[in-house]
Automatic annotation (TrEMBL):
Residues of the Pyrroline-5-carboxylate reductase dimerisation domain: 164-268
NCBIfam families reported for this sequence: proC
Pfam families: F420_oxidored (PF03807), P5CR_dimer (PF14748)
GO-annotated molecular function: pyrroline-5-carboxylate reductase activity
Similarity annotation: Belongs to the pyrroline-5-carboxylate reductase family.
Protein name: Pyrroline-5-carboxylate reductase
Catalytic reaction list: L-proline + NAD(+) = (S)-1-pyrroline-5-carboxylate + NADH + 2 H(+); L-proline + NADP(+) = (S)-1-pyrroline-5-carboxylate + NADPH + 2 H(+)
Entry EC no(s): 1.5.1.2
Domain Pyrroline-5-carboxylate reductase catalytic N-terminal: 7-102
Localization terms from the record: Cytoplasm
Keywords from the UniProt entry: Amino-acid biosynthesis, Cytoplasm, NADP, Oxidoreductase, Proline biosynthesis
Length: 271
């Protein structure tokens, strides 16, 4: 993307802005000099400038809007109205991309007085090029804006377009999902330690097992249940563990966790 690379701005220079900017520069061919991030907190600006070497920062949201072709709205949902109020005008030349959980396109249209807006739900693995992003575009958005958004997101991993009504479910599944998987990895490595493995060995084996199992699902296209059956020998070790997980309601707990996160996303949109 380096020739005619867009100038990319961020309102909010926190975790997600850093993860996405890193992906754009490392894998999207966006020159760091094309990135400008605004944040009211000096500490956040300093960290952003240090981690995205060559990027610029400012305390002024309007400066970002005026100097960018694409602006990622990367503030917490509760701060979105304040961020919008800090702007005098959003020029038509600027495409807005909101990554805030729960905030609908309708709400964003009214806050920012523009309809050139796309709503995205990314996740933190943007940082390592393995994000799972979904997005929905405002009615009337041009194909060029959709293609540009998809190209930028694909520099951080994968990007799928979904109807907006599915974005709360996406938020529960892949937006919040990394946290649930980290808990699983932590629990697996604790179990290894309990069985006598050194912590570093247990953690490495747990993380690689999750990565390898995920890759098997993606690379083979086989149903996870079939892949599970391949691991599960008659009268063997795996079925003993599967029985414990079923007794403890593992599937129900995962379904409830993702449903609770999706419900919270809906609530955030109504606040
Ligand atoms: N952390 C995650 O895993 C994910 C977060 N998101 C969404 O991304 C957004 C950002 O989340 P994080 O990066 O985790 O939060 P964060 O708290 O790390 O970053 C937000 C930044 O916004 C700044 N800020 C506050 N008020 C501002 C204003 N008026 N103008 C400009 N900047 C302002 C804060 O100082 C902070 O540095 C949220 O809306 C969240 O729903 C979406 C997907 C995943
Ligand atoms: O916890 C949150 O609200 C954000 C949105 C998705 C992941 N983190």
């Amino acid at each position: 993307m380096s020739t005619n690379s867009p100038r990319i701005g961020f309102l909010g220079a926190g975790q997600m802005a850093l993860a996405m900017a890193h992906g754009f520069v490392a894998r999207g061919g966006v020159p760091a000099a094309n990135i400008l991030a605004a944040d009211p907190f000096e500490q956040a600006r300093t960290r952003f400038a240090k981690e995205i070497s060559g990027a610029k920062t400012t305390a002024s949201n309007q400066e970002v809007i005026d100097q960018s072709d694409v602006v990622i709205l990367a503030v917490k949902p509760q701060m979105m109205a304040d961020a919008a109020k800090s702007l005098t005008k959003v020029p038509g030349s600027c495409l807005l991309i909101s990554i805030a959980a729960g905030i609908s396109l309708d709400k964003l249209n009214s806050l920012f007085s523009t309809k050139r807006i796309i709503r995205v739900m990314p996740n933190t693995p943007c940082l390592v090029g393995l994000s799972a992003c979904a997005f929905s575009a405002n009615e009337g958005i041009s194909d060029e804006d959709v293609t540009l958004t998809k190209t930028l997101l694909e520099a951080t991993g994968i990007a799928v377009q979904v109807p907006e009504k599915q974005l709360d479910a996406v938020t529960g599944l892949s937006g919040s999902g990394p946290a649930f998987v980290y808990m699983m990895i932590e629990a697996m490595s604790d179990a290894g330690v309990r069985q006598g493995l050194p912590r570093a060995v247990a953690l490495q084996l747990a993380a690689q097992t999750v990565k390898g199992a995920a890759e098997m699902v993606l690379a083979t296209g086989q149903h996870p249940a079939a892949l599970k059956d391949n691991v599960t020998s008659p009268g063997g070790t795996t079925i003993a563990g599967v029985h414990e997980l079923e007794k403890k309601g593992f599937r129900g707990a995962v379904i409830d966790a993702i449903s609770a996160a999706a419900e919270r996303s809906k609530e955030l949109g109504q606040d």
